[in-house]
């Protein structure tokens, strides 16, 4: 089983992540993780913190001479602003005159977290609930991507809507198409729509507001049969939905055409096979590459809907946890729109799910042995289904 854990707060010393279950021999370096973190900082509408987050990765264990050792990989990303926050976040007991934050922000984890853990200092909750936590996910996802690339599986993403501005639906057949998204300020593949999205962001920013949107994650090169139909928690689409929904601000997840399929008739919703004999490719990909909880050989398409960021520049009406009186919530710096960044985080979560599913069927302790198992699996399938 491939799994990871991360630890750290938004303004703490740093974010640490441990990932285990990878075989020996997967190519990896700190630079690879840093490149993914750089992509996470992309996007028109990001806040000033992006200029401060250099995100240098230290590999603490599990990698030697550019390859994984089969033991747990531990990475650390230190907070460049720790000195500014030391008095507020120092883990040791000090005599600092720190004013607790007692004004929970609607739309965040603040109030339910305070009630759950019995604290009236909102910072005890908001620091871990922050999207800064996704640094650990992206580092782990970089490792998962490196593993998948050894088997020809490539993952990318692009933005299809910001606010009320949407791009037309498009079918992608190759990773190189979605890879072009990184060249655009909002990671949209349609230049005209991209300009309209940026205008929408500017308008929201000028009024002190924020925007959400929708992104798509595409995975190419998946073999048939990742996941399973036999139990609810082994279904690939269920695992993907949970992984993407776990990202801060995500309120909806679709596989393929998702909700729009509910409006069509059965005859219009099927992905029929090509007419050529001996081909299992499809004429369409409405199911997003998943049928019956398993990959069907078509590109995987996962769509995530992100709500507008609930942290507003001027704060919003709330109540004080100490007095119960009406007041204005804590004013924290915020992005206007983080949909492009959320798409990159979602790539990592999708990569981790797919890598785990791949390890289930051909996993072992050594990458070369895993490749041989994978090749043998494909050869066996050709013998069983030669037509």
Short key terms for the protein model shown above:
four-stranded antiparallel sheet; globular; 11 helices; alpha+beta; 387 residues
Tally of DSSP helical segments: 11
Rg, rounded, reads: 22 Å
Largest sheet: 5 strands, antiparallel
Mean pLDDT: 93
Oligomeric state of the chains?
Answer: single chain
Q: Secondary-structure element order, as H and E? A: EEEHEEEEHHHHEEHHEHEHEEEEEHH
Estimate the global geometry from the Cα principal axes.
Answer: globular
Structural class by SSE content: alpha+beta
Total beta-strand segments? 16
Are there runs of 5+ residues with pLDDT below 50, and where? Answer: none
Order of strands in the sheet with most strands: 9-8-10-14-11
Strand % is 15-25%
Q: For the record, give the distance between the C-alpha atoms at the N and C termini, rounded to a whole number.
A: 34 Å
Fraction of helical residues: 25-40%
Structural notes for this entry:
The protein has 387 residues and is of the alpha+beta class. Strands 9-8-10-14-11 form a five-stranded antiparallel sheet. It has a four-stranded antiparallel sheet with strand order 1-2-7-4, with helices on one face. α1 packs across α5 and α5 crosses α10. The longest helix is centred in the last third of the chain and has 24 residues. It is globular. The two termini are 34 Å apart. The model has no long low-confidence stretch (mean pLDDT 93).
Overview in brief:
With 387 residues, the protein is an alpha+beta fold. The protein is built from 11 helices and 16 strands.
């Amino acid at each position: 089983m491939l799994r990871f854990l991360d630890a750290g707060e938004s303004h703490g010393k740093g974010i640490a992540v441990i990932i285990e279950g990878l075989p020996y021999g997967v190519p990896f370096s700190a630079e690879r993780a840093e490149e993914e973190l750089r992509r996470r900082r992309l996007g028109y509408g990001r806040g000033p913190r992006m200029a401060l987050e250099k995100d240098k990765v230290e590999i603490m264990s599990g990698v030697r001479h550019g390859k994984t050792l089969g033991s747990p990989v531990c990475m650390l990303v230190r907070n460049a602003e720790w000195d500014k926050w030391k008095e507020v976040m120092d883990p040791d007991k000090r005599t600092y005159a720190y004013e607790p934050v007692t004004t929970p922000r609607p739309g965040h984890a603040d109030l339910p977290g305070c009630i759950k853990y019995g604290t009236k200092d909102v910072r005890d909750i908001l620091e871990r609930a922050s999207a800064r936590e996704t640094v650990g996910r992206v580092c782990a996802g970089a490792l998962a991507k490196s593993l998948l690339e050894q088997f020809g599986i490539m993952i990318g993403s692009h933005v299809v809507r910001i606010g009320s501005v949407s791009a037309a639906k498009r079918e992608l057949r190759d990773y190189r198409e979605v890879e072009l998204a990184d060249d655009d300020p909002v990671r949209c593949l349609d230049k005209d729509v991209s300009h309209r999205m940026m205008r929408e962001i500017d308008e929201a920013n000028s009024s002190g507001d924020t925007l959400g949107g929708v992104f798509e994650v595409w995975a190419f090169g998946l073999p048939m049969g990742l996941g399973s139909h036999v139990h609810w928690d082994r279904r690939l689409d269920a695992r993907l939905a949970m992984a993407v929904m776990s990202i801060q601000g995500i309120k909806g997840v679709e596989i393929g055409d998702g909700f729009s399929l509910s409006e069509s008739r059965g005859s219009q919703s099927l992905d029929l096979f090509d007419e050529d004999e001996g081909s299992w490719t499809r004429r369409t990909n409405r199911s997003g590459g998943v049928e019956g909880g398993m990959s069907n050989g078509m590109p995987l398409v996962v769509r995530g809907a992100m709500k507008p960021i609930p942290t507003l520049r001027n704060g919003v009406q709330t109540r004080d946890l100490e007095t119960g009186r009406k007041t204005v919530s804590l004013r924290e710096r915020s992005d206007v729109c983080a949909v492009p960044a959320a798409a990159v985080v979602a790539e990592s979560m999708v990569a981790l799910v797919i890598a785990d599913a791949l390890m289930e069927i051909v996993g072992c302790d050594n990458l070369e042995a895993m490749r041989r198992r994978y090749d043998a699996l494909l050869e066996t399938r050709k013998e069983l289904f030669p037509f």
